[in-house]
Amino acid sequence: MKTYLIISALTLVGSCATTKYTTKIQNLKDNIHLVDSASVIKYANTITPKELKEHILIIASDSFKGRKTGELGQKLTSDYLKSYYQSEHIKSPLGNNTYYQIIPESFLPKDIKASENVLAYIQGSEKPDEVVIISAHYDHLGITKEGEINNGADDNGSGTSAVMEIAEAFKLAKNDGFSPKRSILFLHVTAEEIGKYGSEYYTLYPVFTLKNTIADLNIDMIGRVDNCHTDNRNYIYLIGSNKLSNELHYISEKVNDTYFNINLDYKYNTEEDSNHYFYRSDHYNFAKHEVPIIFYFNGEHEDYHQPTDTVDKIDFNLLAKRSQLIFATAWQLANQENRITIDFDNQEIF
C-alpha cells in the first residue's frame, strides 16, 4: 500500500509539473504580439530574387577565386561588401568608414594570412545599446589542387547576399521613418571554413557587449534544396531556436505562420544529430556565450564543398522567401517592447 501511495504521489507531482509547464508555454505564446505587420510585409518585399542574384553573380564569380581566407578573392569580397554598405549609406559601428574588424595572422591557423570581418549597422532609435545580430560567413574554400574554383554560390554566397538585402530592407524602412527600436548589426564573418575563427574573434572582442546582444540569426546555405525536400521545396531547417530561449523559438514560429508558411524543419535540432550541425557554423560561438541563436540552413546537397556549387543551381525565389522570413524575425526582435528572455535551465547542452 505504501508503495502504491508513493507512486501515486509521484505521478500526481509529475502531472502537476507537466500542467504548469504547458500553461507556462501557452502563456508565453499568448504574450507574443507581432508589431508593425503592414510595414514588415512592405519592406520584406523589397528583398527580391533579382537583387539577390546580382550579388551572388559577383560573390561566386571566378574572379573572386573561391574566397579563401586571407587570399585575394576573400579581400575582393570584403571590399565588395564595404563598398555596398557605403553606397547604401549604412554605417559601420566602428566609425570613420572603418568597416573591417581585423583578425591578425597570429589568431588564425598556421600559414593563413590576416583577414577581416565586415561590419555594418543601423542604430536603434529607442534602445541603441541592445543589438540583434544577423550573421553569415563570406569566405569559402579557394581553388582546388587541380585548379578548379570553389565558387561557393550556396556556401555561403546565399547567406552573404541575404544579409546584404536584409540590411537594405531595414535601411529603406529607416529612410521612411521606421527606425528599429534596437540596433541591428550586419556581421559578415571570415574564416568559417577553417574553424569559425571570424565569429570566435568577434565574440572575444565584440563591438557591442555580448550581454546586450539579444540574439544572433545566422545564415549559412539557404539557396538550394536537399534530397529530402525535392517534392516540397518550401522549407528551411532551423537549428538552435529553442536552445537558450523558448520565446525566440515561438516568435520565430509565429512570424512564419503569420506571414510566410514555410515548413520549418527541426530534423537537425537535436543532440542526436550525427552531423553535429549545431556546432558547425558561426552561431555556435554566440551560443557558447549565452546569446540566443537561430541557424538557418537548407541542408547539404551533392555540390556541398565542390567546385560544382555554382550560381545556376540557386533557387532565387526560394532564397528570397527565406531571406524575408529572417528579416521579419529580426524586425520583431528589434521592435517588440521587451527583449527576449533567456531560459537558463536549457543550457546544459553546452
Word description of this protein:
With 350 residues, the chain is α/β, with parallel strands linked by helices. 38% of the residues lie in helices and 15% in strands. The protein has helices spanning 2-30, 37-44, 49-59, 72-87, 153-175, 197-204, 246-259, 283-287, 316-335; strands spanning 100-103, 115-122, 127-137, 182-189, 213-219, 235-239, 263-265, 293-297. An eight-stranded mixed sheet has the order 1-2-4-3-5-8-6-7, sandwiched between helices. Helix 7 links the parallel strand 6 and strand 7.
Mean pLDDT over all positions: 94
Give the percentage of residues in beta strands.
5-15%
Strand order of the largest sheet: 1-2-4-3-5-8-6-7
Overall morphology: globular
Figure out the total of helices.
9
Please write the string of helix (H) and strand (E) elements: HHHHEEEHEHEEHEHEH
Runs in which pLDDT lies below 50 for 5 or more consecutive residues are 1-6
N-to-C span: 43 Å
Structure described in brief:
This protein has 350 residues and is α/β, with parallel strands linked by helices.
Describe this protein with a few key phrases.
single chain, 350 residues, alpha/beta, 9 helices, disordered N terminus
List strands and helices in order, with pairings.
Elements: H1 2-30, H2 37-44, H3 49-59, H4 72-87, E1 100-103, E2 115-122, E3 127-137, H5 153-175, E4 182-189, H6 197-204, E5 213-219, E6 235-239, H7 246-259, E7 263-265, H8 283-287, E8 293-297, H9 316-335
Parallel strand pairs: 3-4, 3-5, 5-8, 6-7
Antiparallel strand pairs: 1-2, 2-4, 6-8
